[in-house]
Design goal:
Elements: E1 8-11, H1 19-25, E2 30-33, E3 47-51, E4 56-60, H2 83-95, H3 101-113, H4 119-133, E5 139-142, E6 154-156, H5 169-172, H6 192-199, H7 203-209
Parallel strand pairs: 1-2, 1-6, 2-5
Antiparallel strand pairs: 3-4
Helix pairs in contact: 3-4
């Protein structure tokens, strides 16, 4: 994969993105968020993975009419399920005793309390907060229309990082093990909140080491 000659990366908006997602962003000066795609189910757009005491936990944001062809910005969150309460309880159980949980937890708790109606707004707030806490300064803009082909200065990473495509990891992400909250065996490429809660102000340096040479 040749990215050195690319200035920008075009990528979809994900929910509490993985370390791989942020590792990918490091190679580019500008992040272009695909704002004109249709929602894709069973993707990282509405799910992430964290490490619980007994296993890896999948957190899914339920959406309304996710099986229909709907623009990503129009997908509504389904609050008939108490997903926000369950997500926060699961995170608290997983990371309540992590070294930096108390330092970072309120940032995320405040986002959940806003109860965004649209998945797009929730994900964008989560992304900008994670970038801030990681001290990653990038120009961010959104697409104005959907373009199948991109120009030569843009690397198209849309749909490359997804739960069904594990082989792509070597292109974006080289695991840099760090001390996690549970277990003796390192679990790579969880949501970036695992890295933040466990390693705090060291997270940005660990993230830099995760970038393939």
């Amino acid at each position: 994969m040749k990215t050195l000659d690319k200035q920008s990366v075009l990528i979809e908006l994900q929910y509490l993105p993985s370390i791989e997602f942020f590792s990918c962003l490091q190679s580019f000066s500008e992040i272009i968020i695909e704002a004109n795609e249709n929602y894709v189910k069973q993707s990282y757009r509405n799910r992430c993975y964290i490490l619980g005491s007994n296993k890896t936990e999948m957190l899914v944001v339920p959406v309304i009419d996710g099986n229909k062809k709907i623009l990503i910005k129009d997908i509504r969150i389904d609050y008939s399920q108490r997903w926000d309460v369950n997500h926060w309880r699961t995170m608290s159980a997983a990371y309540g005793k992590a070294p930096f949980y108390e330092f970072y937890s309120d940032y995320f708790k405040d986002i959940y309390h806003k109860k965004y109606s649209f998945l797009w707004d929730l994900n964008f707030e989560m992304l900008t907060m994670c970038l801030k806490l990681l001290r990653v300064n990038k120009t961010i803009r959104q697409t104005q229309s959907y373009e199948k082909e991109v120009n030569s200065t843009v690397f198209d990473a849309r749909n490359l990082i997804n739960p069904k495509n594990e082989t792509i990891h070597s292109q974006f992400y080289q695991p840099s093990p760090y001390q996690q909250n549970f277990g003796n065996e390192f679990v790579p490429n969880l949501s970036v909140i695992d890295l933040l809660f466990c390693r705090g102000n060291q997270a940005s340096e660990i993230l830099k080491k995760s970038k393939p040479i």
